[in-house]
Amino acid sequence: MSEVTVRVAEDPDDLEACFAVRKEVFVVEQQVPQDLEYDAYDAGAVHVLAVRDDGTPLGTGRLLTGAAAAAKNGGERGIGALGRLAVRRTARGLGVGARLVAAIEDAARARGLTAVDLHAQTHALGFYERLGYEVYGPVFPDAGIPHRAMRKPLV
Prior knowledge:
The radius of gyration is 14 Å and the shape is globular. Helices cover 33% and strands 35% of the residues. Helix 4 links the parallel strand 4 and strand 5. It is α+β, with helices and mostly antiparallel strands.
């Protein structure tokens, strides 16, 4: 595979690419209703984008901070919330997801956060565990898909 770059999505074209990947993975592939996939948190989130050297978008994810993250993690403001991690089917198994998670963790550290929480689809628990996340709490449904809460302290 060609070279992959992961960067914070700061311009409108990058954000459009992030939303296109999410639509492909969540709305089309996993059949999450579009009105659930895009939410009010998108406007204030830090979005990251993975692209091939030819500019093809491969994956995305977002980091919520402050009150938005606290709404997801039980009220703890010093903890970020990783979410909407999506990798296109053609790029899975190539390390793109791990690089996106690392970029989100770097963004969290840069903002002085002490940990990152996420809500993982249960089939993806092993992926996040390999990256240092630990499960807590019961299984719960999100958009009709079973999830578990996970957390990783940032050092």
